[in-house]
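Quick bug: EnpEP protein output formatted oddly.
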Amino acid sequence: MVPPRAKVFLSSLLALGLLAGSMPIFLSNQGPSLSALAPNGGKPSASAVEKAPLSPPKVQPDAPAPALSDRLVEYHMDVRYEPEQNKLKGKQTVTWTHPGKRSVNELYFHLYPNAFASDETTFMKESGGRLRSDPMPENGYGSMKITNVKTTEGLGLTQRLQFVQPDDGNINDQSLAKLRLPKPVKGGESITLHLEFEVELPKIFARMGRTEDFVMAGQWFPKISVYEPAGTRGRTQEGWNLHQYHGNSEFYSNFGIYSVRIRVPEDYIVAATGFPTKPAQKANGEKIYQFYADDVHDFAWAASPNFVTAEEAYSAPGIPGVRIKLYLDPAHKDLKERYFDTAKTALSSFGKWYGSYPYSTLSIVVPPYSGNGAGGMEYPTLVTAFGANNDSPGYELERTVIHEIAHQYFYGIVANNEFEEAWLDEAFASYAEEKVMEKQYGITSNTAAQGASITSPEPLKMESWKYSSHENYALNVYTRGKLVLQGIERQVGSKTMDKIMMTYAKKFRFKHPTTTDFQKVVEQVTQSSWQSYFDQYVYGSQMADIAIDRIKTKNKGTQTHPWYVSTVNITSKGGDVTDVPIVFAFGDGKLVERTWSGKNGKVTYTLEYHTPLAWVMVDPKYTIMLENKHINNYMKAGMDPKVVTRWNLSITKLVETLFGSMSW
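Here's what came back:
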């Protein structure tokens, strides 16, 4: 997910201004059974729908291809959107395969729509009823209810459901539910359940819901939580990874197969994860779509009668063949070429940098402006751009689409746990986004201003809801995390960094890596230890801070033949730094350049010249990515150190106040 950029831009301007002062941003009961979604012999065919046993056979493609992932879950779903009731009504058959060794007596389901059930849910309390700059509209609540659960033998389990709150004990939060099973599931065994559910759609402000005629169904169905075997993501003992829906958190789930029928009013157009297995059909005032996707860990869809659609086939090195599909709000109907070009640019870049794109489709949904809260979000093979505000957006159109397509790799294919290590998708997508923006559009971000915005650095490997505020979550997980990656690149060079990123993306393709896994790749490629760097800047909350402490000049010559000896004391007051460029300027305009290794945390330079030293500046081109206090990088000779200290502290406090007052 990408945060709004406008305020980042404003932040950059403010930081630049301050820097300049001191130196030169989801069924009716008559409907067919779910098994009809996957008839014997292959994926849903174009033949007429027939009733079949409740327990569907395993779905495999007509021409089976090797599974790319472990496919631990299999969902068959039939969902109807009822605009008059503002509801989704669904049936689901889900099969879960136990990946561990110990028997389990319960399953856990994420019921994400319940995050919007009241002001007392964990999500609403933590977020204050808003996401990014989008507040919840008046009476915008929504919820999910599981109306029936039974086994394949017909045993009812609905009364066995229990809401749990492992993170905060908030009894008003029903975003996670435990289902006690009638008998244990042993390691390696599978269990199939049949569920019926209803979703009352919230008004869109946080990813999913409805506005006007537009529906965004993200996280709309009961989703099984992840059971992690020992060794997964560093676990010493196997078990469930269980978290509620938090104000900052996104999602984490297993790879699997999805076969989904979607019923909407007959004038609606549907965009969805995966690909349609047959043309949409109209019957009884409905339009019925059927989609299939495998080796994905989520399924999302959007619907509107107003979509302006377009489609193009595209292939390139790393992109064997993909159909790019646009579903545009009418306000952006004339911008389809920009969307196509951006998608192709992103896909071709990421295909070369991070490995081939393994799916046959990529859909881009542009919500209406009133649905902006659903914009800027990633789902497997489907991304949303920001809500259409006007017909002439700036480069934020490209930047947002590129960022979300980057998530097809970092979150989509390389599937980290977004609850616990959000930087592994957000920072990586931001890093990839900036590389494309610079290489293809010539737009370079102001990393000095971005660094200066990090006034409250916090560790990157941390549960997303434990950050001190939403602002600090965004600044650390997106911006600071991206700067950490750029800081590595500064030290190793772009070619080695490209190798690091490609190695990581390929090694953990369709796996669930951790920060430690990434660190090991960095060390493997560079053949050196990065423990200190990761301890300070990733596992810790360090930032760089290089200060010029003192300039002292003395004339050792005569009045007629002066000869000045200048002593300059420079200290690293923050995390470790390397290869620090320094410029010394003398009274007659002469410049002397030096590079400090950063060793020992401090250094003294003595320079002799016939004119006195005028000023000194550390890192004049702002190459040290993780420095956030550039205010003390410059000093004029002859200033009282006490005055400099007071002045710098005052300006630093002003910077912190300005950035602290801004929200994302």
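Actually, after a second look the formatting is fine. DSSP finds eleven helices and 32 strands in the chain. Closing.
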